[in-house]
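2024-03-11 09:14:02 INFO receiving multi-entity request
2024-03-11 09:14:02 INFO entity count = two
2024-03-11 09:14:03 INFO echoing inputs for audit
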Amino acid sequence: MDDTRRAIETVFRIESPKLIAGLARITREVGVAEELAQDALVTALEQWPRTGIPERPAAWLMQAAKHRAIDHVRRGQLLAKKHEQLGHELDGGAIGAGGGGDARAGSAEDMINNLDDELGDDLLRLIFTSCHPVLSPEARVALTLRLVGGLTSEEIARAFLVPMQTIQQRIVRAKKQLADAGVPYEVPRGEELLPRLASVLEVIYLVFNEGYAATRGDDWVRPELCEDALRLGRVLAGLAPDLAEVHGLVALMEIQASRLHARVGTDGEPILLFDQNRARWDQLLIRRGLDALARGEALGGGVYTLQAAIAACHARARKPADTDWARIAATYAQLARLAPSPVVELNRAVAVGFAEGPAAGLAITDRLGDALAGYHLLPSVRADLLAKLGRTAEAKAELARAAELAGNARERRLLLDRAAKL
Amino acid sequence: MRFMVLVKASKQSEAGATPSVDMLAKMGKFNQELIAAGVMLDGGGLKASSAAAKVQFAQGKRTVIDGPFTEAKELVAGYWIWQCKSLEEAVEWVKRCPDPMPGEDSEIEIRPFADLEADFPEQAAEARALLDRAKH
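2024-03-11 09:21:47 INFO inference complete, emitting structure
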């Protein structure tokens, strides 16, 4: 029986995002939709051990949940009608036709008929809703992983190293916030689309980075977060294939994920890009990343696409000496035009230093003193360039400065070691 | 988690029989569902073993043997590489696969990828050290 139960739960996990998405179109509230989906699971756990798992489980689950969904909407309509009647009686006015442009004003039957819409559109609606900017980033992450990723609260809690109750409360509050704010269940259009898309991509990349930053010795669930994020990104790319930055983000994640096995040493210490054994880079993921990058660039690119292009330059180099620094420098220049920031300029300085020589790179860093005042990587980069120019004393001074600003003891030690070696 | 999903060969596939258009269309649709779900990483079909060769390692000798090989159901006709949360999930996806060899009995095998570092950390570390020393 345990195997059957596990199989049923596995099937539910596969189907639940689309099920919730479709139910949310009827009920207009993702919270209610999720509850109805859970009810359908209970029914499946009761019946499928006897009848076997149906050939089309998605249709079965939707059928099971649909009636309750319509009942829910009807109850809401009855309530609205009652309030309306009361309101009119109090006003002394005549009873007119239905309430405001609210979806509940339409008949439940109309909603059933509209179920023929692509389930894919519904999943897209769900993604945009669970990533709505009215929610805090943490709330968006928890809600999206739950509703779209199909993760349990326990899995999310373990991945983010917080208690399960925290995640449960976060999700409950998020659902309430969406309902209270009256967030419409739709895919944003026109001018709204790109800013709302940015919100979605931010959520997915947040999840990815949480997994990417995990080091060996952390719970192994955490690198799985990279897989969860990649999967969400790929699903989104399938649902919205014309959006350049979706492909750009997927490309960036595929290429970064290709290095997961090379970035951490046997002692758990992180290994810098230039010291990594490139034979351990996952070529399957690199190939997928380059494919996604090509799609993003063909559609016009953007910030994530440019970052992916830079990652691709490293991915293509068999060894550090083969790196196309000129191309990286040029891409950072494009990135600087699109999303200017002193950190981007600093990275550009490093690339220019390799492509055109340390003096050219140093000249760029000369202009960054104010903007990056407390940032230890600025003096660290300058030290490297000064050392290459033979200006050893100045390089040592910059490394001392960097060590002062460094965030943790390990970094400080590395910087002081570098100074000692000069 | 990563899985290799192996479609085993059959008498017909080994005989190089013409695939049915209906089966190809159904497989195409299945592949689209795998991509849409973010599960598909890679996949490909293999030619019948008449086009193949193998190398046998025995008593320090290597022997090359040309196809075709016998025991069709031991052979691989096609493969996928999938990303799934668990073996159970991979199994559920395989259950949705259209019959790969209509009219015959067939099998699809699901194999999780090994994780050397996790399963044999000492050996993995030693091998790594050897490789790194060989570089410098």
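2024-03-11 09:21:48 INFO post-check: Chain B touches chain A at residues 1, 35-39, 41-42, 81, 83, 85-86, 88-89, 91-93, 117-118, 121, 124-125, 128, 131-132 (CB under 8 Å).
2024-03-11 09:21:48 INFO post-check: The first helix of chain B runs from residue 11 to 14.
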